[in-house]
């Protein structure tokens, strides 16, 4: 048995005996789970772990790894003229929000209203 295997086995034993996992223990348990090829329930059963705790840590790590959403600054050089706003084929803009929501912004929009709408939609998630 290699040293690394012994270390992983010791970490799994400590994790099974503990009501609290440190970040390092959780990382070691998740790595062992991923290389095992087992289901969460089977891995947890074999190592005396609670499957819910394993799922919770798995979800937490996935959320930490997910790219964060960020607003990109937009600078409007000058407001469009009333004629440009009414012109056929005037350019519009589409904003893609979390979870696939889209907002189509037509020329002449009010930036403050748009910002409030985006905040309200993002907070509703």
Describe the structure.
- The protein has 6 helices and 2 strands, in the order αααααββα.
- The protein is mostly helical and 125 residues long.
- It has helices at 3-17, 23-36, 40-47, 51-65, 82-86, 111-123; strands at 93-96, 102-105.
- The mean pLDDT is 81.
- It folds into 2 domains: 3-65, no CATH class; 82-123, no CATH class.
- The protein has a two-stranded antiparallel ribbon.
- β1 and β2 form a beta hairpin.
- The relative contact order is 0.08.
- InterPro entries: Transposase_8 (IPR002514), Trp_repressor/repl_initiator (IPR010921), WH-like_DNA-bd_sf (IPR036388).
- This is Transposase.
- It holds the Pfam family HTH_Tnp_1.
Structure summary, number of beta strands: 2
Number of domains: 2
Straight-line distance between termini? 48 Å
Tally of DSSP helical segments:
6
Helical content (DSSP H or I, runs of 4+): 55-70%
Indicate the low-confidence ranges by residue numbers: none
SSE class: mainly alpha
Shape: rod-shaped
Oligomer: single chain
């Amino acid at each position: 048995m290699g040293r690394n295997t012994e270390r992983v086995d010791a970490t799994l034993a400590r994790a099974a005996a503990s009501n609290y996992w440190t970040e390092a223990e959780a990382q070691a348990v998740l790595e062992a789970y991923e290389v095992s090829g087992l289901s969460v329930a089977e891995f947890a059963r074999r190592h005396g772990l609670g499957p819910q705790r394993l799922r919770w840590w798995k979800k937490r790590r996935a959320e930490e790894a997910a790219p964060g959403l960020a607003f990109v600054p937009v600078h409007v050089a000058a407001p469009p003229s009333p004629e440009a706003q009414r012109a056929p084929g005037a350019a519009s803009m589409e904003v893609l929000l979390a979870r696939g929501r889209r907002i189509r912004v037509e020329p002449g929009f009010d930036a403050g209203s748009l910002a409030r709408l985006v905040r309200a939609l993002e907070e509703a998630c």
